[in-house]
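Issue 218. Parser rejects a valid record. Input:
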Amino acid sequence: MARDLTAPVRVGEHATPTDGAHASFTGTPAIEVTDLTVAYRDRPALWDVDLTVPPGVLMAIVGPNGAGKTTLIKAILGLIKPVAGQVLIYGKPYREQRSLVGYVPQRGSVDWDFPTSVLDVTMMGRYGALGWIRRPGRAEREAALEALDKVGMRDFARRQISQLSGGQQQRVFLARALVQDAPIYLMDEPFQGVDATTERAIVALLRDLRAAGKTVVAVHHDLQTVEEYFDWVTLLNVRRVASGPVQQVFTDQNLRLTYGGRVAFLNRGGESAVAS
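Output the parser choked on:
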């Protein structure tokens, strides 16, 4: 049975999102964002965003183009200075917890023509632990090869990064993050432009990270796979619409509030569902 998403509900109208943000968990949040506002010139990209990410969840950030998804990731990482608000990683500012966070940027934001090998790119993930003086040694090389093995790219270790396909390049960037062995991973569209085989490999890797107690936050565009791939979701459209467990938050009403116009996807039965 298709979801009925035909009733137009827009952000700002009198509708209350179903929010699981207060689902109970114990301990310090892996990520805590409070009153976060980010603006480009006079245009807000994020407005008064509050977000709590418990440890050990696999969370998607979804929303329309221009909703501020990448901006949120960059603000958490300190790559963008907010107008207001704060971000805490396990209760402390990011600058004190850098080593706890691994980052996979959008593939399109990288200069893939830079002359370097797959192995060298992967070992870059250890630079934060090594500092600027120490050079990577045998231990770092073995760790990088092990990470490449996990993403099925060990045989390409000597290959120039520019010679790889888009899906292979994405796997290498995942390996670079894995070699950090961080408790938190932030990923900006890890499935963008990859083939079905690579997507399945990435999903398996994310689940392995969750099983190991890691926290994974990923910007994601495919609404059809949110319920299958993730157990936690944040719906964002400049403001946070809702955040919490997928079963509580990923609802028709919240999707209408988030996208404000047309949103189409296939439900579990393979039928088309459209909001307009």
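Fixed in the parser; the record now loads. The CA atoms of residues 116 and 160 lie 6 Å apart.
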